[in-house]
Amino acid sequence: MNFHTKPVTYVSNVTIQVSDLQRSLDFYQRVIGFQILSQTSQEADLTADGQTAILTIVQPEDVTPKQPRTTGLYHFAILLPTREDLASIVPHLVNNGVQLGSSDHLVSEALYLPDPDGNGIEIYRDRLPEEWTWHGDSVEMTVDPLNFKDLLQPENISPWTGLPAGTVMGHIHLHVDDLKTAEAFYVDALGFEVVTRYGHQALFIADQKYHHHIGLNVWNGVGAPRPAENSVGLKHYTLTVANAEKLEDLAKRLEAKSYKANRQDSRVITEDAAGNEIHILY
């Protein structure tokens, strides 16, 4: 099953704020391997397939540096099509002086790095769904060391020529101020399912039994404040839903539970209780 196409509800774009658009464009093209789809003096849409903007970077007026211990972006996650793609980007990143974190999550293998402003990035590949272990409605995930020796077998590595066309935005992971209120919004109003809980610290939610489309944590503290509107970090992210009927259903559910549901053209703009803005479209 493809967990990043309709009728699944999935994260299709993440829009982040940066302090220097040109510096960020150099990083995201040269280091990560994006192409520019469109660009203005303060904003650029980035693509892997030449058609779909999965990451948008914006330089706001009077931008301020990333604020510590606030709600907002923990990381966005770029999903590569194959394990060979993941292996091939490793020497490329190392040759560009990138300090990498890494983990084997059982459902996936992942690399972690920041952009020049400290926005968190995950680059990962999924194991096949039949290799995931479910215990009822809960999928088994962990934070094991990544086996680089196995990953970086010579037959897995090809010269890096940029993000493959099948690359998508795999998920987003957010800092929130309270897990219970976050769960009420994302599960009761938006209709996601909880697939993993990490005690009282984090939970992971998904549609159609993916291992997670959204991660939520309180690692910046319960009651963490919202960042300033013009600070580096998350501006908003986009959820794509199956059709107009699904969009209208979500808008009505949001309104019924007294959440923001601002209808604009063919999208609904809302935000979770921690101030993370979400654009929903079909």
Automatic annotation (TrEMBL):
Pfam families: Glyoxalase. SUPFAM superfamilies: Glyoxalase/Bleomycin resistance protein/Dihydroxybiphenyl dioxygenase. The keyword Translocase does not apply. Gene3D superfamilies: 2,3-Dihydroxybiphenyl 1,2-Dioxygenase, domain 1. Residues 10-126, 168-282 form the VOC domain. Keywords: Coiled coil, Metal-binding. Residues 237-264 form a coiled coil. This is VOC family protein.
